[in-house]
Specification:
Two copies of one chain form a homodimer.
Chain A (H helix, E strand, L loop, with lengths): L15 E5 L2 E4 L4 E4 L2 E2 H7 L2 H10 L5 H13 L5 H8 L7 H14 L9 H25 L14 H10 L5 H13 L7 H10 L5 H12 L7 H12 L5 H10 L17 H17 L3 H21 L7 H11 L7 H22 L12 E4 L3 E4 L11
Antiparallel strand pairs in A: 2-3, 3-4
Helix pairs in contact in A: 1-8, 2-16, 3-6, 5-6, 5-10, 6-7, 6-16, 7-8, 8-13, 8-16, 9-10, 9-16, 10-16, 11-15, 12-14, 13-14, 13-15
C-alpha cells in the first residue's frame, strides 16, 4: 500500500448531516442544551428519569407523569431468565462493552416489537433499553466474579439501582445522587460518533436494538467512550500530587497527550467538568482517598500552564477529566467506566433513533449512503486483466 | 413536533466522505470493480475464497497462497462450545439477523485479539469472522428447529460448507458453485450503509467485532439488506406469470414501488442482476418450479415497460431482483436471505475496517463526528426557564 498517497479522510468534521431538535452544543462558550434546557439546570435540579422523559417526550414531566414514568422503568428493569443463562455462558475475561453490545442484540430476541416499524414500538423499545442497561452491566459485574445477579429493587431509582445491583448494597443518598448527576451529564451530546452510528443504522429502518448495538460498539473505541478509563490509568500511574509536573513535562517532551485535556468541540472548559469536579472532591474525602481528585486538580493547573507556556495555546478540561476519579471513588471497576457512559448515553441514542426514523418531514428516512473516492490504481486507469488461478 | 418545519436530512448523498482502494462502482455504466478487477471476471472465474483473499491482501492468490488461505479458513470455521450453549438459550422466534448481530458481538468474548489494536490482530479477526459467519447462521437454522448443529466439513469449500451445515446434506457441484457466485457478487459495494456503519464504528478505534456488529445491524434494515426478502414475498404473492401485469398496474396505481426495480446508484441494470438471472432460471428448472424465475422475468419486462409508458422513465433491475428466486430455489428460508447477504458482505466490511484503521496516511483514524443543525425552538431563541418538579 502506498503510504505517501494523499488520502481523503474527512471524518465528516464541520459537515451538517441533518437537523435535530434534541440537543445543542456551543463549544465556543461551553453551552450544552437538552431540548431547550441548560445542562447546569438539569444537573442541579432534575433526576436522570426526568431528563430521560424530557429527551423522549420533549417536555419535563409533572409529578404524576414522572411517577408513572418511573413505574414503567421499574417494571422493565428485569432481564429474561434465558438472557441471564446466556450471560453465564460468556467467558469471564470478556470486555464489559462487548458484553453490553451482545446484550443489546440479545434483548432483541425477546421482544416482538422488533417486527413493528412504528413510533409506538420504538418508544417501547427505548424504555426497555434504558431500564435494562444498568441491570445487564450489574448482572455481568457479578457473574464474572462468580456471584449471582441481584434483582433490581422496586424501592430504588435508576441511579441507585445500578449501584445496588452491582454491589448488593443500597447506596446512601449522596452517592446515589452523585451517580444520578453523572448520568444526567452524559445522557446526550448531539451527533457524537456513537449517536451518529445509531442514527446511521436506524436510517435503513433497522430496529432500535440493532441501532443501539452500533452505538455501543462505537462508544467502546478508545477515541470515544474509552477516554475516561485512560484518565484513571494516568492518575494511578502518576500516583501522587508531587509527581504531576514531571509527568506533564515528560508527556509533552514525548509528543504525547494528557488524557482528559482537549476536545474536538470545546474552546473553553467543558461545562460538565465543572459540575463533576466538586463531586469528585467530596467522594475523595468520603473514601479517605483525596489524592485522585487532588492529582486531577494539579494536573489541570499544571497541564494548562505548561501547554500555554510551551505551545502558546489554551487547553481545556473535558468531561472525562473529573469523571474518572469520581467513578473510582465510588468503587466502580475501571473497565466499567465506559459501560457507565453507555448507561447514560442510551437516553440520547434512543431519542435520536426515534427522531431519525419518525420525526416530522424526515419520517421517511433517507438511508445514509455517502460516496467514496476510489484511489485504487492497481493496473493503471483501466481495470486489471484477470489471470485464471491455473496461470498465476 | 412541527410537521411543516423544513428538516435537513442529507443522507450524505453525493458527499465524498473518504477515499478507498477497495472497490469502485460506476452506476452510469453498471461497472463494479473489486481491487481493480471487474466483477464479471471474478464471478465467472474466481471462487469466494479467492475474492476474499483479493479484498484482504490486494492481490489474487497463486495456487499455494490460495491453498494455505483455504486451510486457514477451514481451521477457523468451528464455533466455541460456550457459543453454541449461548445460541441454545435464544428464543426460537428471534429474527436471524438479530441472532447474527448478537453472534458477532459474542465472538469478541472468546478472542484476545480484541485487546490489540494492530493490523495483524485486525487481519486475524477478519479471517475468523469470515470463516464463522456461515457456521453461526447454519447452527441457528438448525437450533431453532430443535436440531443439533452440523460441524463444518474439512472437505468442503466456503459456499458448500454453508449449504451442508444448514441442511446436513452435501450440495452437488452446480448448486455449490451457484451459491459461491452469489457470495462473490455480494462481497463488496463501496460505502453502502452497512459498510459505512462498520467504518464509522472502527474510526473510534473500536475493534473488528464491534464494527462488524454495526454493519450487521445496518444490513438488517429493510431499505438495505432486507430488500431481497421483499422481492420474494412479492413473487409469492403474485403467484403466476399471468398475474404480473395486473400486479404492476395495481402497485403503480397505489403509488407503490416494485421491489427489486430501481437503485440509488445505478442508471442501467445492475451488472449483478445479469449474472444472477441465468442461475435463477437453471435452479428453477432443476427444482421443477420454473415459475419464480418466469414471474421475475415477466415482472422485469412489464415493470420496465409500464414505468416507461406511465412515467416516461427507465427503471432497472437491481441485485435483489433475481437473487430472491435463486435463493428460494436453493431451499433457503426467506428469513435467511439477508443473513446470506451478510455471509458475503463480511468480506467487504472487514477490508473496510482494516482500511479505516490502518491504511496509509489514514493510519491515525479521524473519528467520524459530523455536525447537526439544532432546530429546537422550545422556548424561542433563548433557553427554557427550568421550573422545579414541585412547581410543575
Amino acid at each position: 500500500m502506498d503510504e505517501c498517497r494523499p488520502i481523503l479522510n474527512t471524518g465528516l468534521r464541520g459537515f451538517k448531516v441533518a437537523s435535530s431538535r434534541i440537543s445543542d452544543v456551543d463549544g465556543d462558550i461551553g453551552k450544552i442544551v437538552y431540548r431547550g434546557f441548560l445542562i447546569q439546570d438539569l444537573a442541579a435540579k432534575a433526576s436522570f428519569e426526568e431528563v430521560v422523559y424530557l429527551l423522549l417526550y420533549e417536555k419535563l414531566p409533572n409529578k404524576e407523569e414522572l411517577k408513572a414514568f418511573e413505574a414503567r422503568l421499574s417494571a422493565e428493569r428485569h432481564l429474561p431468565a434465558e438472557f441471564i443463562d446466556a450471560l453465564k455462558t460468556r467467558p469471564k475475561y470478556a470486555l464489559p462493552m462487548d458484553i453490553l453490545q451482545a446484550g443489546v442484540a440479545m434483548l432483541a430476541h425477546h421482544d416482538s416489537d422488533v417486527r413493528e416499524l412504528s413510533d409506538e414500538a420504538a418508544s417501547r423499545m427505548a424504555i426497555k433499553l434504558i431500564a435494562k442497561f444498568p441491570t445487564i452491566m450489574a448482572a455481568w459485574g457479578r457473574i464474572r466474579n462468580n456471584r449471582e445477579p441481584v434483582d433490581p429493587s422496586p424501592d430504588l431509582g435508576h441511579a441507585a439501582n445500578f449501584l445496588y445491583m452491582l454491589s448488593g448494597e443500597v447506596p446512601d443518598d449522596e452517592v446515589a445522587r452523585f451517580f444520578d448527576v453523572c448520568l444526567v451529564l452524559h445522557a446526550e451530546h448531539t451527533f457524537n460518533a456513537s449517536t451518529f452510528a445509531a442514527r446511521e443504522v436506524a436510517s435503513t429502518r433497522a430496529h432500535m436494538y440493532a441501532a443501539v448495538a452500533a452505538g455501543v460498539g462505537s462508544l467502546s473505541g478508545e477515541l470515544h467512550g474509552g477516554a475516561n478509563v485512560r484518565v484513571m490509568e494516568m492518575l494511578l500511574k502518576i500516583g501522587s500530587v508531587d509527581k504531576v509536573e514531571d509527568y506533564v513535562t515528560a508527556q509533552l517532551d514525548a509528543g504525547k497527550v494528557i488524557f482528559g485535556l482537549g476536545h474536538a468541540v470545546y474552546k473553553v472548559d467543558d461545562p460538565r467538568a465543572h459540575i463533576l469536579a466538586p463531586m469528585s472532591q467530596k467522594m475523595g474525602e468520603r473514601t479517605g482517598q483525596p489524592q485522585w481528585f487532588e492529582i486531577s486538580q494539579e494536573l489541570e493547573k499544571k497541564g494548562k500552564a505548561i501547554f500555554k507556556e510551551r505551545k502558546g495555546i489554551d487547553i481545556f478540561t473535558n468531561v472525562d477529566f473529573y469523571s474518572a476519579s469520581l467513578y473510582y471513588s465510588m468503587g466502580i471497576p475501571l473497565d466499567f467506566f465506559t459501560p457507565i457512559f453507555a448507561i447514560a448515553r442510551i437516553a440520547g441514542w434512543v431519542a435520536h433513533v426515534i427522531e431519525e426514523q419518525f420525526a416530522g418531514a424526515a419520517a421517511k428516512p433517507v438511508l445514509y449512503r455517502p460516496e467514496s473516492e476510489y484511489v485504487g490504481d492497481y493496473c493503471g486507469p483501466d481495470t486489471c486483466e484477470f489471470v485464471p488461478l491455473e496461470d498465476r
